[in-house]
User: Fold these one by one.
Assistant:
Number 1:
Amino acid sequence: MSNLSNLKLSVLDPSPIIVGGSPKDSLENTLDLAQHAEKWGYRRYWLAEHHNWPGMASSASPLIIGRVASVTNKLRVGSGAMLLSNYSPYSIAEQFGTLESFFPNRIDLGLGRAPGTDGLTARLIRKRFAGEPDFSERLEELSAYLYGSGTVTSDGKHTFHAIPGEGTKVPIWLLGSGVYSAELAGRLGLPFSFAGHFSPVNMEEALSIYRRNFRQSDILDKPYVMLAVNVIAADKEKEAQRLVTSSYQKHLMLTRGKPAQLRPPVDNMDNLWNSYERKAVEEQLFASIIGDASSVKKQLIKLLEKTQADEIMAHTEIFNHQARLRSYEILANVIKD
């Protein structure tokens, strides 16, 4: 795809908390970025769900989705992803049915399988019991609430309705960093979003499996791929390379099992990581798009030629909020040139 004018751009925002900042600051920055993104022509604005992570303020994503939708007018707002294994399908249907009622035709429900945290915190959130349904069964139940007329007990004596929610047909997406969700999304005829911003090693295989297994549905008549990817753009190449070191440091700390707030950029990462850690971080981030406008355009074209993605969801974690805004502005301008 050498002509980018028809490419759809979207935003994936984990509401990053920076060193010296606060969750309140991060959430206010989220509202500011969403308003700018709408002005610059972005299609969607999704919030990531994470728990017990000191560097992310997006844990209660449905609440943030509603707030973002309230300060924008046309932007589609959604979850990237709502982690279905953490909640009952019934409660998710009610929450997103409520959002859809307030903001008709503007809400997306992206679903993921991962817990979005460490094992101990996941158990605290889930309070899981033996014999609970797996992801595909939860998805089937959730779809019945939003697209059908509820669910019926095995003895047929009681029907459960999600109100609000029933009949709203909130668009469901499956998100994934591997092949399970790719295959399931294809088989069910759902749109698929791949987490290329932290798991690019599985990208081409997952997209191939999704397209190969795709079956036409009432929702889609052909596959639809949205690719989440890190984008760090600046007016100068050297500045972009410096800004991305905040993201490198984030993943370095995750590699060490010590998630932390987003740190200021540095001039030289070699003072912070060893060769093993550098390789581990680079394996997670090698699909990142980093540079000035000209370089970003070339990298974007190359990525699209390789993946044939229908939409790009930019994940941009930069320490300085104004620099983060500028990165999204540059990316938006790139596809207009």
Number 2:
Amino acid sequence: MPLSVTRRSVLQQAGAVAAFAGTYGAIQNIARAQTPSGEDYWELVRRQFIFPESAVPMNCANLCPTFQSVADKVATLSRVVDYDVSFNNRAQFNDTLKASRAKVAAQIGAAPEEVALVRNTSEGNSVITNGLDFRAGDEIVIWEQNHVTNNEAWDIRAKRFGLKVIRVSVPRVPESDEQVMELFAKVCSDRTKVLSFTEVSNVSGLKLPAKKLAAMARDRGIYCHVDGAQSWGVAALDVHDIGCDSLAASAHKWFMGPKEIGILYVRNGRAPEIWPNTIGYTGDIKVELELENALKFETLGQRDDAAVAALGETADLHEQIRPERIQARVTELASLLKEGLKDAGATLVTPESPAMSGGVVVIEVPKANQKAVADAMYTQFGIAASTSGGLRLCPHIYNTRAHILRAVKGVASMRDLVKV
């Protein structure tokens, strides 16, 4: 018997998927549970993730596990697309894209039209690096600890168009925000067109005073771009309060969301001066140079509609837990980790002060020993770390105090290997 797919059946199918997602969400819903307090609450949060105790993730600066309800929603909605790839069926995802965009925009203090849903921080950074107009001899000021996509990417643009890139070095533990400000301000000149920095370093954990740097740039008529890869999902962001012109971040890191989804915030009034990198269609948005907001950077061609839709569910979970509570918990765990690592004989690269650091914690390890230490942390202690900057450990809300103590125990067992 031939299958007859009508608009009604498509909507019924979408309704069934929504009901499934809603039911599963109700089971996992942190907000609806009889919310315990203290560590019991965070144990409940930990159970929203499927990782085993033998492979505890502590490398948020690279990749976080996704909330299981979000991963399940991606899988379910992917089947909806594969079941019926017609325009008729896929039209429903235009609305979910708008809903996801609106939710993440609200959480970072932006208007929906100021946010483009891109694929990751790298793509967002590239829009700015390649999209701004320059003249030969123009200068770009960057932090030497920027991620490669906000560092070497500027070198490539400079080589192509005769620009000058100036790198700023900052002390390992700055004396104050004012000292950092002065270091950046003194290299800015009349030729400086862009100040571009990563708010929290992925190799040291040092956090720059983004709001003060953005204010300095604004006062001098300099475009300010922030790489927020280590900020979105861990800090209670307010991009309007920061005052930057643009900010890029990835959902697969601290936001604990679907993979290959990111955000590019562009402050209203700035988008017209940025050329789009990719010319294509996304849902009902197409490239129009007259489009005067961030949506013109969302024309990326065929998207993973399921992941874009599930981004909204991740935002809902953040709202249930509350961004400020997430930030406080990460600060608590990172502080506990730093204290324990010091007691274990390790030398911190990351400043101890929470005001000068985020959730990224790095200790010194001799280059020759870094891989052996990271491997041992995983195989012997079940902690997934990174060799970036030495040994990098990044705790998040799915980590428990027991995980932190296990990581400290692992480092303590390798005192001779981590000794510099």
